[in-house]
Amino acid sequence: MALHVIVGAGPVGTATATLLADRGEQVRVVTRSGSGPAHPAIERVAADATDADRLSSLAEGAVALYNCASPQYHRWLTDWPPIASALLTAAERGGAVLAAASNLYGYGEVDAPITADTPLAATHPKLKLRADMWRAALAAHEAGKIRATEVRSSDYIEANSIFNAVLAKPLRAGKRANVPAALDTPHSWTAIADVARTLATVATDERGWGKAWLVPTNPPLTVRQLATRFTEVNGLPPAKVGGLPYPVLWTAGLFSPMIRELRTTRYQFIRPFVIDSSLTEHTFGLTPTDLNTALKNVAA
Fold first, then answer.
1. What is the pLDDT of residues 80-95, one digit of tens each?
2. Are residues 104 and 167 in the same domain?
3. 149 and 274: one domain?
4. CA spacing 20 to 30 A to 268: which of 46, 145, 199, 220?
């Protein structure tokens, strides 16, 4: 039984902690409030993830240190750098593999499916930030200071996701869902269970170190297709969806910092934005969660 230390108890941190605990591993979840999933094998600790000394102490003896933190989106430029720095320090001091749960923002706008060879080309500060975090971890890995890996997923199907908030909630209530996206443009949707499984795999497999991996993800669906599939799988009234004009989104951003930040990633929802996770699947023998199962989990 090895010790795994997870920073963050959001959907990915909780899923990863629970997965590892169910496998019989010793898990320590670190959050500012001491929150986290209730499980006999999970220790919940209240600590500041920007405190490198405290984090190093908590990660001492761990085989892996997982970055599952989730600062509020509009505070990324302020909150991420000290967290990333503390994680690098803790991994170097204690020798734990640093495994990060990340996203696709670092690629910026793309004109083809994202693969393992797609460069991190984002230039917007908010998008480039996640790419720079990986570049720093990879540089430390290549210098022999740490062992690092990263998994990247598209928008989640479950939990605190755009799909769940904008589509699933109104559809469950039999209402029309108005979406700030093109309704018939292909988009990749990732299940959180697959993020957790991939993260736990690459953190403990030498083949995963020194690389970033795309989380196994089902073939892309348009917003309209996903909404229809969701209602059919869960026996709900037929999906009614409509596009939300950009001026409405822009105006709403005047009153909500979170909505205002969505302007930055609008390109992901008005043009095809898909991933090809075949390398991860073939390397580790992983497959994405059945889409119908994931959509039933959303309804539950």
1. 999 999 999 999 999 9
2. no
3. no
4. 199
Same domain, 64 and 135: yes
Question: What values do phi and psi take at 289, rounded to 5?
Answer: -60, 140
Residue 255 is predicted with a pLDDT of 55
Number of domains within the chain: 2
CATH of the domain at 39: 3.40.50.720
* Digit-coded pLDDT (tens) for 169-185: 889 899 998 888 889 99
pTM (predicted TM-score): 0.94
Segments forming the whole domain that contains residue 179: 156-188+219-299
